[in-house]
Amino acid sequence: MTADIEKEKEVLKLKKSRLEAKERLLKLKERKKRTRLLIEIGGLAVKSGIAHLNTNTLMGAFLEIQEKSSDETTVKKWTQKGAEAFEKDKQENGVPLIVTFEEEPERAIKSKIRGLGLKWNRFRKEWQGYGVSSDLEKILKGTNYKIEALDPRGNE
User: Residue 155: is its pLDDT beyond 70?
Assistant: First the structure.
């Protein structure tokens, strides 16, 4: 009888251990998600040109945003203005691009790609950076390439 109780205790210990491991994993995922959100908010502060403001000023502005966020008209206006700003940035700076080749391009082509601001990723064997696809297509004419444009905001 005591052997059965000891066996049951061991089973329960294992279950408890698995649950604790799951809990740690969930906490880690939550922390990563929160960190990602905070980084994005900071990036938006920099992109919008307000990162130079002191923390009291930023906090006041955020509180005002929170107060006005219940007004649908205001939120729609903010959404439109933000979309326009992202579109303007995309037109001026391009989007994240990945360029791959079936065979290594000539040195002159590589130099032109670098000139557009892309960098070679030796681990992934591809060119990466921000740019405008049409600019790249002009200099890559006559080569066998593939350009993949990524959405910088993760909206696939």
Answer: no
**Domain map (residue ranges) of the chain:** 2-68, 94-149
Per-residue pLDDT of 89-143, as tens digits, reads: 888 888 899 999 988 899 999 999 999 889 999 999 999 999 888 889 998 988 8
- SS3 sequence of 93-109: HCEEEEEEECCCCCHHH
The DSSP string of 52-118 is: TS-HHHHHHHHHHHHHHTT-HHHHHHHHHHHHHHHHHHHHHH-EEEEEEESSPPPHHHHHHHHHTT-
pTM above 0.85, yes or no: no
Half-sphere exposure of 68 (CA within 13 A, CB side): 12
CB 116: neighbour CB atoms within 10 A?
17
Residue partners of 47: CB distance under 8 A and separation at least 6: 85, 89
Q: How high is the pLDDT of residue 2? A: 81
Cα–Cα distance measured from residue 60 to residue 56, given in angstroms and rounded to the nearest whole number: 6
Percent helix, strand, coil in the chain, to 5, is 65, 15, 25
Size (the chain), residues: 156
